[in-house]
Structures are given as C-alpha cells and as structure tokens.
C-alpha cells in the first residue's frame, strides 16, 4: 500500500462523550493514537474495526472504502488484526493451536495487499519457537501478548489494530516485548494503528502521531515534527524528547560507542554493536540537552556531543524552565532537537529565536534494535 493512506472521520455521541476525530495517516508503518485517558483512542479503534458504528463516519484504507454514508462493511468482513491490552487466547488450545486459529481466519489474498505472512515467519519474528507446544495457561504476560500478536498477524490483516498492548505488563515484560514490536515494524508491510498513553513507547515505535484531546484530533503528522512543535503540549511534558533518524558511520568496540550521522550533525552514542550504514532511532530527552554560546575548548568538558544549532522556538515550561526548540546545523537546516534550560539561563544568555547556539547533549539513547 505504498503511497496510500488511511483516512478516518468519526463524529458522534457515545453517552455523554462527544467524538469528532478526523485524520489521514500513511498506510504503512506505525501510526500512534496518543492522548490522555478517556480522550477517545479506543473508541476510534473500535470505529475502525466496525465494532462501534457512528452514522456519517468515513473510513478508507488504501483504495478500499470500509465506511462512507450508507456503505458500512461489517466488522467480520474487515481484514483487521486486533490486539487488546489483555491477550484473549483460547485456554483449551496450545500456542500452536492459537496461532493456527489465526491462519484459519485468514482472508483470501487480494492484489492490493501486503505479501502474506507465513507461520514460520511469525514464529521467528516473535520468538515463539520455544513456546509452540505449551498450553497458554503457563505463559507469562509478555509471552501471551506475543502469541496474541502472532495470531492477529496470521489472519493476514490489511491493518493491525493494537490497543495498549503493553499496558497490562510489568516493566520487565514490556522491555522483553518492545524489541519484537520494533522487529515487526521493520519486517512487515502491514500498517499499524497503535493506541497508547505512554509517550516513551510511542517514541520507540511510531512513525506518525495522531495526538488526541477530548475526543478530537489536536494534531497529526510525522512523530519527530509533532514532538518539537512548540504549539503542542508535548514539548512542555516533563519527559519531552525528540527522536532522530541516525545512520551508523563508525563503531568503536573498545569504548562501546558508535558515531552516527543525523540531519545537521554527528553524535557519539553508546552502542554494543553497530553495523556501518544501518539506520537507528535515537531518543534525546530535552532535560539531557543544555545550551552554550560557544563550544568548550577541546578537553575541557566530559560531554562528547556539542552540536551547532539554531534556536527556532521556545516554550515556558513549569514556571522556572524553558523548553527550547532547536534545528541542528550551523545553518539550522537539520533535524529538530529540544533543550531544557532554566528561565534564568535563557535570560542570562540573552537567547532568542533565530540565534545560533551550541547544544550540549549529555544523554542520548538508541531506542531500537541493532
Ligand atoms: N458506548 C459508550 N457509551 C457511553 N460512553 C462511552 C462509550 N464508549 C466510550 N465511552 C466514553 O467515551 C470516553 C472515551 O473512551 P475511550 O475508551 O475511547 O478513551 P481512551 O482514550 O481509549 O481511554 P483509555 O486510555 O483510558 O483507554 C470515555 O469517557 C468513555 O467512558
């Protein structure tokens, strides 16, 4: 579905809740529906699956119309895989049995669709080989969720819907399953609508962000753009961060560091391994970036990453802080980055939009799998 989009418009009342959600996202990669609890994310997903029917709704997936005016494709005729917070596996079936159930539900191939996902491929991508013969009752929460995702994928969905798939898991199980989701993202051509209220999760997985507030879509666009938009509340969040696409250009195993290139600069980042030429996703917290007018002399600072940039905007944050939006590169033509400084520093340095500056990056993490 290259170049195609998913277009959705759902408006109406559910009890006292008013939904008016409209968005268009690419029909590839992961689009995250993100927003506070109760803003309507699950309701949108249910509308996409056809489980909630709002009159006047519109849903187009690529060239297929699933809802428009009187046209409404019944839920069981929509080729979606649905993964919920709690994996609802069949208790009387083994892992293999649950996965095979997905295969039985598989839609027949159509020309438009992504290539079919094979049983062995799913087992491999989700690390299920060891579990195949087990009854589902003995699985851990993370394992159950991997099986649920596998079952959904084997139904050969045109679209994968994931509703807080990690929310019910403890931290170690989340950390266990996230790399599998990243692998799926890279390996499969199936677009994903991913509901979450955890921005760190979104920053690891999403390409596109649909930011929801009180039943409405506040903003939609590439994740990196929205994270650095001073008009949106994301920049003011305590954990505000930016994600950057980086290409590995060197790896130094002696120090466990890789040098990566991003648009407008280079960074040295912790990396156990690094294949030159591979793309990786970086996440840099605003609170890990400070600003200086000129770079410290060589050998004068422990900070390895000092990058020329331009200030493009700023947003007062939390009384005494300012979140500064930067564009990397001396000409400010590179990727966006956020820095968090005190309002006092902002005043003392006489900072303003348009000024050249240096970003001192104290912490940076690769947040995807090598
Ligand atoms: N069928 C319904 N009848 C009445 N109210 C409903 C119905 N479905 C959803 N709501 C209400 O709509 C609002 C949005 O619910 P929804 O589950 O979509 O939010 P959410 O953003 O997914 O929240 P969370 O992150 O907590 O899961 C809630 O106030 C919910 O109670």
TrEMBL record:
PROSITE patterns: ABC_TRANSPORTER_1, ABC_TRANSPORTER_2, MOP. GO terms for cellular component: membrane. Keywords: ATP-binding, Cell inner membrane, Cell membrane, Membrane, Molybdenum, Nucleotide-binding, Translocase, Transport. Residues 1-239 form the ABC transporter domain. Residues 300-370 form the Mop domain. The keyword Translocase applies. One of its GO terms (molecular function) is ATP binding. SUPFAM superfamilies: MOP-like, P-loop containing nucleoside triphosphate hydrolases. SMART domains: AAA. InterPro entries: AAA+_ATPase, ABC_transporter-like_ATP-bd, ABC_transporter-like_CS, Mo/tungstate-bd_C_term_dom, ModC_ABC_ATP-bd, Molybdenum_import_ModC, Mop_domain, P-loop_NTPase. It comes from the Bacteria. PANTHER family: ABC TRANSPORTER I FAMILY MEMBER 10 (PTHR43514), MOLYBDENUM IMPORT ATP-BINDING PROTEIN MODC 2 (PTHR43514:SF10). This is Molybdate transport system ATP-binding protein. It comes from Roseospira goensis. The lineage of its organism: Bacteria, Pseudomonadati, Pseudomonadota, Alphaproteobacteria, Rhodospirillales.
């Amino acid at each position: 579905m290259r170049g195609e989009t998913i277009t959705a418009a759902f408006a109406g009342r559910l009890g006292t809740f008013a939904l008016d959600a409209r968005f268009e996202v690419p029909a590839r990669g992961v689009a995250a529906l993100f927003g506070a609890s109760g803003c309507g994310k699950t309701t949108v997903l249910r509308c996409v699956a056809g489980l909630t029917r709002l009159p006047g709704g519109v849903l187009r997936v690529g060239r297929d119309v699933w809802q428009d005016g009187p046209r409404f494709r019944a839920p069981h005729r929509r080729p979606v895989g649905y993964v919920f917070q709690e994996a609802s596996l069949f208790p009387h079936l083994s892992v293999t049995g649950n996965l095979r159930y997905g295969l039985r539900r598989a839609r027949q191939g159509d020309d438009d669709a992504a290539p079919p996902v094979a049983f062995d491929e799913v087992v491999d991508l989700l690390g299920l080989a060891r579990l195949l013969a087990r009854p589902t009752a003995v699985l851990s929460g993370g394992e159950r969720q991997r099986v649920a995702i596998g079952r959904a994928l084997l139904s050969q969905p045109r679209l994968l819907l994931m509703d807080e798939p990690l929310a019910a898991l403890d931290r170690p199980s989340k950390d266990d399953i996230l790399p599998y989701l990243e692998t799926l993202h890279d390996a499969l051509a199936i677009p994903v609508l991913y509901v979450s209220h955890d921005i760190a999760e979104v920053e690891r997985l999403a390409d596109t962000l649909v930011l929801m507030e009180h039943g409405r879509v506040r903003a939609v666009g590439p994740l990196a753009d929205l994270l650095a938009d001073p008009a949106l509340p994301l920049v003011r969040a305590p954990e505000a961060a930016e994600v950057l696409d980086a290409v590995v250009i060197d790896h130094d195993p002696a120090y466990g560091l890789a040098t990566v290139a991003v648009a407008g600069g280079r960074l040295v980042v912790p990396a156990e391994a690094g294949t030159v030429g591979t793309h990786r996703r970086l996440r840099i917290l605003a609170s890990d970036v400070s600003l200086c007018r000129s770079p410290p002399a060589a050998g004068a600072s422990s900070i390895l990453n000092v990058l020329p940039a331009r200030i493009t905007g700023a947003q007062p944050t939390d009384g005494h802080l300012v979140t500064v939006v930067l564009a990397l590169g001396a000409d400010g033509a590179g990727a966006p980055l956020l820095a968090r400084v005190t309002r006092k520093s902002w005043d003392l340095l006489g900072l303003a939009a348009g000024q050249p500056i240096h970003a001192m990056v104290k912490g940076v993490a690769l947040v995807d799998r090598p």
